[in-house]
Amino acid sequence: MPFYYPIKQAALNKPLILPIVSAANVSQLAADLLIESLSLQHIGTFDPGYFIPMAGGRENDEAGISTACELFGSDDVNLIVMQQRSPTLKARKQEFVDELLAFIQKSGFTSVTFLSGVDLSNRTDAQMMTPFYQISPSNSPPFPGLADLQFPQPPVPFIPGGGLTRRILSSLPSSWPIPTVSLLQFVLEGDNKADAQMLASVVAQVGSFHALIKQWKQPTSWSAGLFGTPHDQTLYG
Q1: Could you tell me which of 10, 69, 34 has the C-alpha nearest to residue 183?
Q2: Could you tell me the CA-to-CA distances from 167 to 11, 59, 136 in Å, in that order?
Q3: Per-10-residue mean pLDDT, the chain, length 237
Q4: What HEC string does the chain produce?
Q5: Pairing verdict, β 69-74 and 77-84
Q6: CA distances from residue 208 to 59, 84, 144, 181 in whole angstroms, order as listed
Q7: What is the pLDDT of residue 124?
Q8: How far apart are the C-alpha atoms of 100 and 93, rounded to whole Å?
């Protein structure tokens, strides 16, 4: 199977939002909100061989199954969202990163925004003033939409709980031609729906598409199984 398999024709020369499996899954939850609120459709699937196997039902009773990593878009919205639902296999991390960066460059995306959660308990004194910070790689062109944000911009540091974030940013080639930024949010594990909406709002502001979202919509799966189904009370007498 190729790294990416399109299931419908769709233009990819748009900004890409890419959540990284990381602390509290806040980036995946933010991607869920973007997909649902903008009515994005499933347009392609990534090779599941790179990820811990998983499969599940689709949102809104759509036919088919959800797999580990998929792409979403719409002809009416100038945005593409990748959703990764399962961690990358340890033995294939660098291979996945290399294939991912090659896919991004070959597909003609106009910009890339990586989203990550960071372990709140590892925050330094200098990071106490904001729940967010950004990393703008020095080897990528300036990212549009960041001028109005006042988040700290450190070099690529150790990112506790950040998953593949540091590996991806460190793997960008010196001639990377696509405007790229990583937005990171400090979070603790728990009910992170509010954190996800905050992150999604920042993404919408950075991407200048906040006017398209009148109200944030939660996927139906959040109410059915975000934290698992309730325990059968008969188990406890």
Answers
A1: 34
A2: 28, 31, 14
A3: 93 97 95 96 96 90 90 96 96 98 97 95 80 87 74 73 94 94 93 94 92 92 72 72
A4: CCCEEECCCCCCCCEEEEECCCHHHHHHHHHHHHHHHCCCEEEEEECHHHECCCCEECHHHCCCEECCEEEEEECCEEEEEEEECCCECHHHHHHHHHHHHHHHHHHCCCEEEEEEEEEHHHCCHHHCCCCEEEECCCCCCCCCCCCCCCCCCCCCCCCCCCCCHHHHHHHCCCCCCCCEEEEEEEECCCCCHHHHHHHHHHHHHHCCCHHHCCCCCCCHHHHHHCCCCCCCHHHHC
A5: antiparallel
A6: 26, 23, 9, 14
A7: 79
A8: 10
Tokens of residue 26, six digits: 């806040």
**Residue 19 φ/ψ, nearest 5 degrees:** -75, 140
Predicted confidence at residue 229, as pLDDT, reads 65
Q: What is the pLDDT of residue 148?
A: 62
pLDDT at 126: 76
The closest alpha carbon to 221, from 29, 59, 15, 89, belongs to 59
pLDDT at residue 112, rounded to an integer: 97
Helix axes 26-37, 193-206, angle to 10 degrees: 60
